[in-house]
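Try this one yourself first.
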């Protein structure tokens, strides 16, 4: 750990793509330099970051290097860079170790028939899109991703002026469906599929007309996609987290693009590297969400 509370201004040194995790130690009330990749405000933060790094050093460093350049990239460039890093880590030892550690004894979740994972309803110029796997907290599987892209293609037509995106049941979206993790044909193919049909790109294209309503678990892909919208309304039951680094991966649903634009790269890295969750009130204070439900 490097104490950057008394480091020189960021302009005097550029970390660039150096493979380092630089922690700003503000545990004693100091203000960490912008050079830091993540800022720890107390001992618990330091312990959590150290634990994550000990589990997945490659993923942690890859995330920080990617976030350093997040301000300078367009949405398309950011999503392409994120996907390339994510695909590389999918073939790495840290993700393989996580897959090996998972219990295979539980039966897979029942999955709705194709066409049922996303509901679409139109009323005049308003399009309502609802994620529809409430039995698994709307965990996003491949069928849901493809159906969401199709729904957002309708939203992009001139006939639609307002989009309302929700999740059925207790949670908006609990992230990627873990039962599908590791089932990709190969990382290169997965990368090309994401470039061609990425829900993040689709929602970013209609961001100015989109309101997302979140509640309950808003994990990984759940918050990464929601953060692209121009307006996010959170129920007070909302809990937000980015758990991917502990799996040997990075946020792969657009989070390295959408979250830094709302909360900056330091808070994005803090969520990912501590593994902590935040509540709706904190998310509003950070401007990760724009409004709380009454």
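Now uncover the answer:
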């Amino acid at each position: 750990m490097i104490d950057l509370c008394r480091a020189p201004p960021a302009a005097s040194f550029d970390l660039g793509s150096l493979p380092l995790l630089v922690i700003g130690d503000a545990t004693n009330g100091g203000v960490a330099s912008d050079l830091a990749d993540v800022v720890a405000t107390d001992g618990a933060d330091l312990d959590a970051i150290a634990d994550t790094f000990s589990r997945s050093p490659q993923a942690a460093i890859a995330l920080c290097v990617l976030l350093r350049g997040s301000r300078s990239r367009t949405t398309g460039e950011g999503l392409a860079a994120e996907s390339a890093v994510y695909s590389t880590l999918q073939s790495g030892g840290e993700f393989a170790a996580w897959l090996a550690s998972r219990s295979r004894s539980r039966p897979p979740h029942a999955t709705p028939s194709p066409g049922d994972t996303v509901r679409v309803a139109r009323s005049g110029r308003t399009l309502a899109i609802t994620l529809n796997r409430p039995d698994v907290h709307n965990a996003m599987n491949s069928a849901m991703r493809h159906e969401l892209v199709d729904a957002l293609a309708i939203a992009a037509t001139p006939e639609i002026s307002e989009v309302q995106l929700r999740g059925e049941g207790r949670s908006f979206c609990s992230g990627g469906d873990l039962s599908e993790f590791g089932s990709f044909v190969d990382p290169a193919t997965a990368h090309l599929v994401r470039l061609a049909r990425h829900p993040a790109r689709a929602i970013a294209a209609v961001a100015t007309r989109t309101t997302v309503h979140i509640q309950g678990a808003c994990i990984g892909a759940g918050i990464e996609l929601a953060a692209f919208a121009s307006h996010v309304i959170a129920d007070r039951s909302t809990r937000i987290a980015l758990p991917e680094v502990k799996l040997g991966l990075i946020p792969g649903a657009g989070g390295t693009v959408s979250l830094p634009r709302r909360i900056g790269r330091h808070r994005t890295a803090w969520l990912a590297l501590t593994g902590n969750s935040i509540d709706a009130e904190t998310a509003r204070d950070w401007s990760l969400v724009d409004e709380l439900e009454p």
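Discussion: The longest helix spans residues 255-274. The two ends are 42 Å apart (CA to CA).
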